[in-house]
Amino acid sequence: MDYRRIKPQNYTEEQLRELWRIEYCEQSVYTFDHVLVRFYEDMFDHAFYESEDRKRKDKSILSYNRLEKIYWIKATLLDEKAILKKGWDNQGKTYFKDRRVAIVKGNYVVIIRFTGLLKAKFVTAFEKEDIGNILSGPDFERSGEYFGEAK
Predict the structure, then answer these.
(1) Which H/E stretch holds residue 48?
(2) What is the DSSP letter of 139?
(3) How far is it, in rounded angstroms, from Cα 23 to Cα 61?
(4) Could you tell me if 71 and 6 are in contact, meaning their C-beta atoms sit under 8 angstroms apart?
(5) For strand 61-62 and strand 83-89, is the pairing parallel, antiparallel, or unpaired?
(6) In the chain, where the domains are located
(7) How far is Cα 58 from Cα 64, in angstroms, rounded to an integer?
(8) Could you tell me the pTM of the whole model?
(9) Quick check: 151 pLDDT over 80?
C-alpha cells in the first residue's frame, strides 16, 4: 500500500487541488473488493479543511495534517487488511446500512457511502485520536444490494 506522505507546505492550494483532481476525480478508484468509489472536486474542502470550532463545524482551516496523507485515502480503500465497520448516523442515533468505515494505521479513517451495486461515493477521511467508539461498533456486512448475491 502507498502510505506515503507529502509535504503540503511545499505546494500551493491550487497545486493540492489539482493533485486531488488528477489522483481521485479523473481516475477510477476501486476498493480491494471491487467497489468503484466516486470522488468529486468539491469534496476537497470537506476532506482537507478542519473546523476551528468543532461545534460550528466551520471548516475554515486548511489542514496540512490531513493533506500530508492525501494518498492514504486510496491506499486505505485498497487495503484488504483494513478494519471495516458500519458508519454511525449521528442524527438518527443508529448505524447506516450504506456506510462503510475503513480503519488503517491504528487511527486513520476513510468513510464511503454505497450508491448501488459495487458503487460508492467518498464521504470523508481523517485521523481520530480515540477510535474506541468506532471499533466498538458492528462490523460492516456485505449485503446483496451492494455486492450482489453470494456465490
Answers:
(1) helix 43-48
(2) B
(3) 22
(4) yes
(5) unpaired
(6) 8-147
(7) 17
(8) 0.92
(9) no
Question: What are the grid coordinates assigned to 119, written together?
Answer: 458503487
Report CA-CA distances (Å) from 110 to 37, 40, 64.
12, 15, 17
To which residue does cell 487541488 refer? 17
C-alpha cell at 58: 466551520
Q: What stretches of 7-150 adopt beta strand conformation (E)?
A: 29-30, 36-38, 49-50, 61-62, 83-89, 94-104, 108-116, 119-127
- Which cell numbers hold the place of 12? 500551493
Closest CA to 32 of 75, 65, 62, 94: 75
Distance from CA of residue 29 to its chain's centroid?
12
Q: Counting every residue, how long is the chain?
A: 151
| Amino acid code (one letter) for 28 | S
**Amino acid identity, position 43:** M
| Mean pLDDT estimate for the chain | 93
**Nearest Cα to Cα of residue 105 among 88, 87, 126, 91:** 126
